[in-house]
Amino acid sequence: MFIKSAQEIVDKHGLDGIDLDWEYPVNGAWGQVDSQPADRDNFTLLLKALRQAMGPQKRVTIAVGANVESPKSCWEYGADDNNQLAKQLADSLDIKR
């Protein structure tokens, strides 16, 4: 449902894509937000499905934490580095501290 709604909004308003800013999957914002270990897998699945639905003509970007553990704790990208992540799941990363 989210992906369909996002795609409709992007198309309706002629946007070039979507940016996800889900800053605390799994780590729970250091105890401030409830989270589950499955958040990481679910976020990865969301990115994969969103990337597929948007197609190559639309951008998918994500905000990520600047700490070195962020990629390991937030999503499973099956790659050796963040450059591979960008190629597989997102067009760019917005690195936040």
UniProtKB/TrEMBL annotation:
GO MF term list: chitin binding; endochitinase activity
Pfam families: Glyco_hydro_18 (PF00704)
Catalyzed reactions: Random endo-hydrolysis of N-acetyl-beta-D-glucosaminide (1->4)-beta-linkages in chitin and chitodextrins
PROSITE patterns according to UniProt: GH18_1, GH18_2
Key word rRNA processing present: no
E.C. number: 3.2.1.14
Keywords, alphabetical: Glycosidase, Hydrolase
GO cellular component, one term: extracellular region
Listed GO biological process terms: carbohydrate metabolic process; chitin catabolic process
Presence of the UniProt keyword Hydrolase in the record: yes
Record domain GH18: where: 1-97
Assigned protein family: Belongs to the glycosyl hydrolase 18 family.
Stated name of the protein: chitinase
Lineage of the organism: Bacteria, Pseudomonadati, Pseudomonadota, Gammaproteobacteria, Enterobacterales
